[in-house]
Amino acid sequence: MTRLLGHDAAEATLLRAFQAHRLHHGWLLAGPEGIGKRSFAREAAAHLLTRAPDFAAAHFDPDETGVAGRLLANDLHPDCHYLTLEPRDDKEARKAEKGEPFDLARNIKVDQIRSLHRRLTVRPSMAERRVIIIDSADMLERNAANALLKNLEEPPENTIFLLLAHNPGRLLPTIRSRCLVLHFMALDDAAMTAALKSAQPALDTAEITALVRLGQGAPGQALRFAGLDMAKIDQILMSIARSGDHDHQLRLRLGALVNGKANRDRFRALLHYAPRFAATVIRTLRDDRIPLAIAACEEMDQLAARAIILNLDAQAVAFQIGGLLARLAPPR
Asked: Among 228, 258, 246, 266, which residue's Cα sits nearest to residue 318?
């Protein structure tokens, strides 16, 4: 089993509660996207479903050799339920069934929670407990959040909820209040390097160095950029933020890098990274540009969210991103 990296405190907290027979029914895994919450939740679920509380372990150490371990590895264990965004519509669902790229819904739907509720009316079938992973809970639509709240208020016996949240402030306060919070902090450079090498041993040293910087402490975020020459995009974004790109040449270069079907993944990576890059630049400002910069960052975030859903032209979107980023440049 690959050891989790960088989240020892959260791991120790949950393990201590389990081993003391005092495992709370609701846990909120809070931290930036891509930081390792999903891997943590899956390892925690595997340990809880294949080990007894009296099993001595300093870290998660699920039994991967038995039937339960093999079922978990193939997402087939009947007592581990994983809820996340589903295909956006029937057309996208058919693409998913064929193994083709597909677009996701914007929210976790109430019907998904209702379906889960029906499964919770029966006892666990293989293990002594069941684990529900919701990835991520801050993407629950309003009715889905209310339906989940009922399960948290009156949890079925021996049921553990692991709620991932990239933005915990978006959750209903009543959901947050019924969970114990595990905080996931950004990994340092050493842990990032180890995580990237573990995930993709073929990455060379130069790319790992670039990905550590681009990932901002989140290995999952960094791995999205692997093989996409994101260091070049990062360089252009930095140049725009410094110079203002008054002749628009940098914006045009940015658009060329993400244009066309062959660069679709790179375009998605730009949409994911640009608002975070802008937020990093804003934290360095100390003058009257800050309000304008914050507004530009929010607009960039909204643009990125619309771009995929509305199938906007990649070059045009990249040009707009460059224009918004130029607002952060020092005055001439």
From this structure: 258
Distances from the Cα of 268 to the Cα of 99, 201, 301, angstroms: 19, 24, 13
The pLDDT score that the predictor gives to residue 3 is: 58
User: E strand or H helix at 247, and its extent?
Assistant: none
Please give the C-alpha separations between residue 202 and each of 196, 206, 214, in angstroms, as whole numbers. Answer: 10, 12, 18
119 vs 289, which has greater pLDDT?
Answer: 119
Q: Could you tell me the CATH number of the domain that includes residue 169?
A: 3.40.50.300
What is the C-alpha to C-alpha distance for residues 18 and 4, in angstroms, rounded to an integer?
A: 18
For the entire predicted model, the pTM comes to: 0.76
Residue 44 near residue 200, CB atoms below 8 Å? no
* Residue whose entry in the numeric block shows the structure tokens 């039994």: 63
Q: Are 272 and 309 in contact (CB under 8 A)?
A: no
212 found inside a domain: no
Amino acid, res. 302 = Q
Asked if residues 35 and 184 have their Cβ atoms less than 8 Å apart, the reply is yes
Q: What is the pLDDT of residues 236-276, one digit of tens each?
A: 999 999 999 999 999 999 999 999 989 999 999 899 888 88
Identify whether the C-beta of residue 54 lies closer than 8 Å to the C-beta of residue 48: no
Q: Is 294 helix (H, G, I), strand (E, B) or coil?
A: helix
Main-chain dihedrals φ then ψ at residue 179, nearest 5 degrees: -125, 150
Average confidence (pLDDT) over 88-92: 90
What are the tens digits of pLDDT across the range 272-309? Answer: 888 888 888 888 888 777 888 888 889 998 998 899 88
Domain boundaries, position 51: 8-183
